[in-house]
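FORM 12-B: Structure-to-Sequence Request
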């Protein structure tokens, strides 16, 4: 009796066209098998795929609970399965929340079919595939300067803005990089100053990055 060595994949994606296109790509490739697709987290939690499922491709923005929110429960239901986020979101909060909750890979929906299949293979072989933009963000997070406990008072976005300020960027440059309005940047900084009890960005930077006691 010949064993089935195909990589067994399930998909959780609410957009019908994307879900079907992804299924067709996977089913049409040698060595891959996709027989279980779900439109939301509730469906896969209520009727999970077989325990020998190798990989679940999981969208983040789903009706009801998000993919990130249901990840911990899915990992309990499918302890031998690897989870890879398949999403349009490339912001720090979603990336790190997904990885913290148990995702082993993170690729963007603009990824080409061939690279999607390669990412699935990489994950099955013990790797942690990520789209280049995502990998750069993860690497950058480890290169940030050490921070004090004051940073715990700030949101991820506020820390992101303050970090860019500490690198010498101007408001307009930060706004362009984060795709925000300059007024929004100033509003976030106003909240930073209030939380840290400081008067300006120099005091804020010194308090967060230089005072580590």
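FORM 12-B RESPONSE
SEQUENCE OUT:
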């Amino acid at each position: 009796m010949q064993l089935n060595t195909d990589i067994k994949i399930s998909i959780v994606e609410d957009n019908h066209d994307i879900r079907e296109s992804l299924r067709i790509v996977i089913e049409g490739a040698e060595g891959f098998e996709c027989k279980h697709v779900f439109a939301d987290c509730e469906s896969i939690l209520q009727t999970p795929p077989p325990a020998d499922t190798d990989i679940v491709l999981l969208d983040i923005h789903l009706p009801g609970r998000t993919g990130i929110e249901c990840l911990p429960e899915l990992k309990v239901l499918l302890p031998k399965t690897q989870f890879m986020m398949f999403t349009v979101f490339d912001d720090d909060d979603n990336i790190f929340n997904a990885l913290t909750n148990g995702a082993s890979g993170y690729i963007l929906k603009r990824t080409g079919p061939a690279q999607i299949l390669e990412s699935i293979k990489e994950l099955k072989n013990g790797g942690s595939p990520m789209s280049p933009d995502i990998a750069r963000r993860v690497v950058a997070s480890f290169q940030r300067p050490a921070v004090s406990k004051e940073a715990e008072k700030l949101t991820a976005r506020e820390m992101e803005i303050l970090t860019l300020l500490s690198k010498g960027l101007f408001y307009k440059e930060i706004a362009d990089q984060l795709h925000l309005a300059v007024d929004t940047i100033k509003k976030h900084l106003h909240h930073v100053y209030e939380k840290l009890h400081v008067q300006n960005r120099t005091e804020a930077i010194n308090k967060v990055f230089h005072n580590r006691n």
